[in-house]
Input
Amino acid sequence: MSSRSGSPGAGPAAGPAAGAGAARVSSPPGRLLRLSAVPGCEQHRTNDVLLLRPEPRATQATRSENAHVVFFPGDIQNFHQEMALQPDASPWLSFSLERVALVLGARFPGRHVWLVRPSRLHLHKFSCYSNFVSCDLFGAPKHSPDYGAVRHLRALLGNAMKRAAIAEPLPPLVGASVPAPLPTGFSLILVGFSKGCVVLNQMVHELASARTDPELRQFLDSTSDMYWLDGGHPGTGDTWVTDKQVLGELASSGVAVHAHVTPYEVCDPARAWVGREHRCFVKTLKELGARISQNLHFEDEPACIGNHFRVIEEF
Output
C-alpha cells in the first residue's frame, strides 16, 4: 500500500514450522509447504517462501512439473498465524499468504505457486524487499540497473525447488558462458501485489544488464507473463516504471504485461502521481508495441482498501 499512516501491517518473521498455518485455511493436506530462510544469490540474502503444489488430480493438459507462478505480497500479508497475532492485520486474514496461495492455485491450475515473503517488516507494518531492491525503512524503493533482483530470484527459486524436492529443479548459477539447460518445459509467471510490485519494477530496470548474462537471459526468456496488481508504496514517485528506454526492454522481451488497478491507488487525489504513472506505463508500452492488457476494477465503487485487496481475487 502507499500511505504510511493508512497501511495495515504484517507481523515479524518468528513463525511456525513448515505448513503449520495450512490447517487453519482448510488447505488440502500436503500441498502447502513453508520454507524458512531460503538463500538467494548470496547466503545472507534469504527469504521465507511458501509453496502450494499443484492439485494432484489436475489433468495432464493443465498440470506441469515445471510450470511456476511467483507472487510478491503487499504490506499486510504474512503467514496466517503471524497475522492472527497482529491487531492491525487480523481483520485481513482472508488475504494471508496461505489463503492467497489457494486463490492463485485456482487462478493458475496445474502450476507450482510460490509466495515470497519480504525479508524485513518495519514496525510490523511495512514490507521491505531489500533483497531485491534498495529501499528505505518503509519499503519505498530506489531503483537501479544492477541491484541483482533477477539474479536473487533465479537463485532463490532454484534453492527453494531443491528444498521442496521438486523432481527437476533449476540448475545452480555458476557463471557459465554456456548455461546448463533449464528443466524441460520450465515456464514462469510473476505476480506483484501492492508493495510487491516494487520487485517487478526493479526486475524491469535490470532487463538490459541481466540479458548480457547467459544464465539470467535464459531464465528471463522462460517468463511468459508479468502481473502488476494495484502497485503502491510509501514513496512519492516510481510507483510504476515510466522510463521509455527501460520500458523498451520490457516491450522487446515479448513478455505479456497485465496491469490491474483499483481506484484506491490510481484515483487518490492525495497521491495523484500514482494514476499519472500508471497511465504513462500503459501508454508507453502500447506505443512500443508491447503485449499489454489493462483493467480498472471496482470503478463504480468507492475507493477503499477492501477493494484494493480484492483485486487479488478478481484479476
Q: What stands out?
A: Residues 32-54+64-313 form a domain with the Rossmann fold fold (CATH 3.40.50.1820). The CA atoms of residues 109 and 249 lie 29 Å apart. The chain has one domain: 32-54+64-313. Confidence is low (pLDDT under 50) at residues 2-25.
